[in-house]
């Protein structure tokens, strides 16, 4: 799920940036530092959308660096248990398949793939139904449900399932509306 | 989850008893201090539904709509796989037992059970780090996967083949170790012969040079029709992946089946425990026998491929290397071409339709033994001056090798003997062999037959007098 929230961060700035562009430097450094990172509490920071406030800077003794407390608005992405996500398959093997929804990696084990889908090895390993009408392979798009998440400091990992109604391959855009 | 919010609202409308039951159950589960609140809540709803089913027989029509709706809800939110596949059974048993939801936790990936998504912190099971860095599987699950996979594979008439990299499929050398005579390899690509252009790779960032064994591309192509192939090397992972890229640039042969040093469960040993294939259907190609302690029966030993001088030195060969002599193994008669023929033979024997046992019960190790026994079939071998005195001949590796190849070994000469293996033409038995018109051969004759899977012409392995050397 995506959230638009306010986060705060203490930014250290080198004295050489002090001048007219101080604020711009601060913002660009913030973007560089924060976008694409992951915090266990909020999930992935997708993009910074605005600066709420920049507090008073505090000069560090000895170094000349200045610390600014910056409050910023950002979009974060955090998967939840029970959430339905659309994801792109990245790897298929006997164990199941891996998929990615943006920065989140999801594993769907073959226990959680419908029983009528069988693993087929070969040049392009895939899971296929017995009549061959549905096929999951690398780069397929699937709709899946998260049944477990593990949030680390730098990474979120999920277990998903497609063994349920309305889940599975969504390559045909007409049927998913 | 919306489920918990929904159920109390529905319950009073269906019947008062249900609600009481629901409350009871709710209290129970609260005092349970269950570590998985969601699971417990689901149980409650299922239980409640079971009651519905029992008590609602008279006014079933009225409530059927509602039940149906709730069933869907349960299905959608249930974490238990079995509940989804057989809801009927679920409903019958759910009222009686409360521990039905226990997941066997077949495996753990990144600290989560692969089946129920529950957080798991124990480090049990076998690590499959080559598939995913944090994947561990329980033994039952491995057995299940192997079983399932084998059936799949046999349907496609394939077996498993585990391939070693260094000295089997290729040979690598660091830039530092190249000798003066090999300097031409470092020169510009255009100066190299055509054969080298296609098989010699300079990996500047690894400071290494790699030479693929002649015939390796054809070998992989042919073998991929008959086998599902793994790479299994004692090298580091980065190296293994790079080599896999050289061997299989389009990534059609190996996929993610590349096992490197860090994946092994035992130090300095290669094991089939992390290969997701039934041992009875695995063949191994490797140049080192010692690392396959537990799986010698699956192993086809390869003659080492030494292209670079550094590799020759490492194994103690004094002579000039292939690279220094600017030659190479033969494309059509080299070790890979030979072993491919053997693999094809084993494969066709294994899938021989006249075989009585069903496919699943067949064992490729038995086939390997049978095929090997054909090599020196009909030969009766006597050794002389090969073993140290006081050494039990039966225990010598040449003796065992000859027996594995189907020859009969004997310690005494008699008219049925066909070959005398000797290091010295002056012994009594050697002289006897010459007089009786039997073959007198060097021990290398047996070794060559072992590597080439074919009886070699005896004339090529004469025994010379040690004093003349």
UniProtKB/TrEMBL annotation, chain A:
Residues 8-64 form the RNA polymerase Rpb7-like N-terminal domain. It is found in: Nucleus. GO terms for cellular component: P-body; RNA polymerase II, core complex. One of its GO terms (biological process) is positive regulation of translational initiation. Residues 79-156 form the S1 motif domain. DNA-dependent RNA polymerase which catalyzes the transcription of DNA into RNA using the four ribonucleoside triphosphates as substrates. Pfam families: S1 (PF00575), SHS2_Rpb7-N (PF03876). PANTHER family: DNA-DIRECTED RNA POLYMERASE II SUBUNIT RPB7, DNA-DIRECTED RNA POLYMERASE II, III. It comes from the Eukaryota. GO terms for molecular function: single-stranded DNA binding; single-stranded RNA binding; translation initiation factor binding. Its main location: nucleus. Belongs to the eukaryotic RPB7/RPC8 RNA polymerase subunit family. Keywords: DNA-directed RNA polymerase, Nucleus, Transcription. InterPro entries: NA-bd_OB-fold, RNA_pol_Rpb7-like_N_sf, Rpb7-like, Rpb7-like_N, S1_domain. This is DNA-directed RNA polymerase subunit.
TrEMBL record, chain B:
NCBIfam families: FCP1_euk. GO terms for biological process: response to salt stress. It holds the Pfam family BRCT. It catalyses: O-phospho-L-seryl-[protein] + H2O = L-seryl-[protein] + phosphate; O-phospho-L-threonyl-[protein] + H2O = L-threonyl-[protein] + phosphate. Residues 39-50 have a biased composition (Acidic residues). InterPro entries: BRCT_dom, BRCT_dom_sf, Fcp1, FCP1_dom, FCP1_euk, HAD-like_sf, HAD_sf. Interacts with RAP74. It is found in: Nucleus. Its cofactor is Mg(2+); Mn(2+); Co(2+). One of its GO terms (cellular component) is nucleus. Its main location: nucleus. It is an enzyme of class 3 (hydrolase). GO terms for molecular function: metal ion binding; RNA binding; RNA polymerase II CTD heptapeptide repeat phosphatase activity. Residues 371-463 form the BRCT domain. It comes from the Eukaryota. This is RNA polymerase II C-terminal domain phosphatase-like. This promotes the activity of RNA polymerase II. Residues 1-16 have a biased composition (Polar residues). It comes from Coffea canephora (Robusta coffee). Residues 154-325 form the FCP1 homology domain. Its EC number is 3.1.3.16. Keywords: Hydrolase, Metal-binding, Nucleus, Repressor, RNA-binding, Transcription, Transcription regulation.
